[in-house]
Amino acid sequence: MSWERTFVDRLAEVEISNVFNPYRHHCDVHDLDDAALIRRRNLETVLSARHAMKVDSIWFGRDLGYRGGRRTGLALTDEVAMFSVVCASNRVLRIAKATHGSPVAERTAAVIWSLIHRLPRPPMLWNAFPFHPHEPEAPFTNRAHTARERRETAWTIEALVERFDSPKLIAIGNDASKALADLGFKHETARHPSYGGQREFIETMERIHDLRPSVRQAAEPKLL
C-alpha cells in the first residue's frame, strides 16, 4: 500500500463530535453518493503529485471551511480552484468534484490560489486541523478547532513534514503558527487573508517567495 493511501485511510478513521471529516462523512444536502471516496482519492492524487514534484514548501491554514475544503477535501481549495490544482501540477491529475450542482467559491481560496499561480512551483497545502469543525447542530457554519482537536490530528503535520523532506513551512494565520510551534517546527508566518488581512498576506508571501509586488486593488472584499 502506498504512503498516500495509508495516510488518507488513517485520516478517514477519525471521528470527532461536531466535526465533519470529508474523507469519512457524507453530507446529505450536497454530496454525491460516493463523495467521501472521491475526496479520499483526490487527496491521494494531490499528495502523490506534490511529492513527485519535490515541492519546497508547505502552507498551513487553520481548518477546512464549509464552502471550501468540506466539499473538496483539499486544504485552502474550493471547487473553483480545483481546476487550478490540476493546472499547477504539470501532469494530468484525476481530480473529481464530490458534490451536486455548480461549483461553490470561497474567497480565501481565491486569494490563496491567485498567489500560487505566480510561483514557479506550487506548495503543498494543509491545515493545522485537517477537518471541518462546526457549531453543534449547524453543519454549515465555521468555528475554530479546539486545542484538544488539534492534538488529536497533530500526527498529520508531522507525517507531511517528514514525507516532504525538510520543506519550508509557512503558517497562514496565528492558529497555524501555534500548531507548528507546539510541535517544535521552525516556520514563517503570514497574516491570514480574511478580515482585512489580504494585502498584508500577499506582501508577506511575496517577501518569503521573492516575488515582485503585484498591482493590488485599493479595497479588499470581505473574505469567507
Give structural notes.
By secondary structure, the protein is α/β, with parallel strands linked by helices. It has a single domain (3-208), classed as 3-Layer(aba) Sandwich (Uracil-DNA Glycosylase, subunit E), CATH 3.40.470.10. The protein is 38% helix and 9% strand. It is built from nine helices and six strands, in the order αβαβαααββααβαβα. The protein has helices at residues 3-12, 35-52, 69-72, 82-87, 107-116, 147-152, 154-163, 174-182, 198-208, and strands at 19-20, 57-61, 124-127, 132-133, 168-172, 188-190. A four-stranded parallel sheet has the order 3-2-5-6. A two-stranded antiparallel ribbon has the order 1-4. α1 packs antiparallel against α2 (35-52). The longest helix is centred in the N-terminal third of the chain and has 18 residues, at 35-52. It is globular.
Topology of helices and strands:
Layout: H1 3-12, E1 19-20, H2 35-52, E2 57-61, H3 69-72, H4 82-87, H5 107-116, E3 124-127, E4 132-133, H6 147-152, H7 154-163, E5 168-172, H8 174-182, E6 188-190, H9 198-208
Parallel strand pairs: 2-3, 2-5, 5-6
Antiparallel strand pairs: 1-4
Helix pairs in contact: 1-2
